[in-house]
Amino acid sequence: MKKYDYQTVAQLEPKSPTVAALAEGAGNHPERERTKSPELFDRVLRSLDRAVVSADTFRGLAIPERPVMLSPFYKRGDYGIIYAPRGAGKSWLSLLIGKALSEGTMIGSHWQAQQRHKVLYLDSEMNIHDLVKTRCDSLRIDSDYFSLLSHERLFSESGDELTLNLADDAYQAAIAAYCREQGISTLILDNLSTAFHGLQEDKADSWEQVSPWILDMRRRGIAVILVCHAGRNGNIRGTSKREDAAHWIISLEEANEDDSAALQFKTRFTKCRNVSPSEVPPLLWTLIETPDGIESTTATIDFYDQFIDLVLGGYTSASEIATDLGKTKGCISKWAKKAQADKKIRIDNGRYLPA
């Protein structure tokens, strides 16, 4: 397979006489004056002549694989979402991911960072003392590859003038420029509700203030992890439009069932483009306080148990459960009959309901 320079793709095959002529004479094109920005029209038309190639040429391009940053699911330039109800542990998980990436280490027994990567963790909600003492000190986050931006520190260091707002394009441009200059490969935004002022979470059009910025970051190889709250129905709060471009989405729910001092939560992928569902099974996380700080462990959750959890959480259809767990509808049907016999759920006209 031949390797081509993206900048010179136009040289690989004869240009379309029509398009080439239009590109060269863009200033005289009749459509030019109908646009709000004639100069941008010129640039777009010339770029189209270089970027558009035949299917045969396109297939011949040597496009490098995106490297895996956190095995098995997280790749360079990803856009991922972590969501959970309040207090379930989404900030803990986000910090653990950032720590592993910055150190090139493993989280629990299942997720492994391949090497060290520069991380910027942007916190827009927590009190700075809680962030540093309760979280970072407990997790022993001390890598020089892990940087933090607290909304409180930005306010104080700006002379009490700047209030962090990533719905503002000036803040977006500044954060993007900083990430590029510092070689940041992962930006963690914790969280949607407090970092984007004026954004209407339930309005799809409102997300257009943010999605082009995230897409631009991805094109530059900077992965973005967005931390969100879950609504009362257990799904991500607000419009589903922000989920469309995500490579993966992790749902997190509290799992503490006793008075143990350990924090426990469950994670499951509701979407993952990078790997098959079997490669990212549901996990039970336990964060244990030790004399040396908090240690995290993970254990795989049995799919049958996960099926029951989904039904108890409001899933009623075999189709949606099969999609969520990456199983066939026949498999889900067998589990449903077993669960009904075990008196864990009941089946009512094909709908799965809590017992």
Provide an overview of this structure.
There is one protein chain. The protein has 355 residues and is α/β, with parallel strands linked by helices. It is built from 12 helices and 15 strands. Strands 7-6-8-9-3-10-11-12-13 form a 9-stranded mixed β-sheet, sandwiched between helices. The protein has a 4-stranded antiparallel β-sheet with strand order 2-1-5-4, covered by helices on one side. A two-stranded antiparallel sheet has the order 14-15. Helix 11 crosses helix 12. The radius of gyration is 24 Å and the shape is globular. It starts with 16 loop residues before the first helix and ends with a strand. This is AAA family ATPase. InterPro entries: P-loop_NTPase.
Topology of helices and strands:
Blueprint: H1 17-24, H2 38-51, H3 55-60, E1 68-71, E2 74-75, E3 79-84, H4 90-103, E4 106-107, E5 111-113, E6 119-123, H5 128-139, E7 146-150, H6 151-157, H7 169-182, E8 186-190, H8 192-195, H9 211-219, E9 223-229, E10 248-254, E11 263-272, E12 283-290, E13 293-300, H10 303-312, H11 318-325, H12 329-341, E14 345-348, E15 351-354
Parallel strand pairs: 3-9, 3-10, 6-7, 6-8, 8-9
Antiparallel strand pairs: 1-2, 1-5, 4-5, 10-11, 11-12, 12-13, 14-15
Helix pairs in contact: 1-2, 11-12
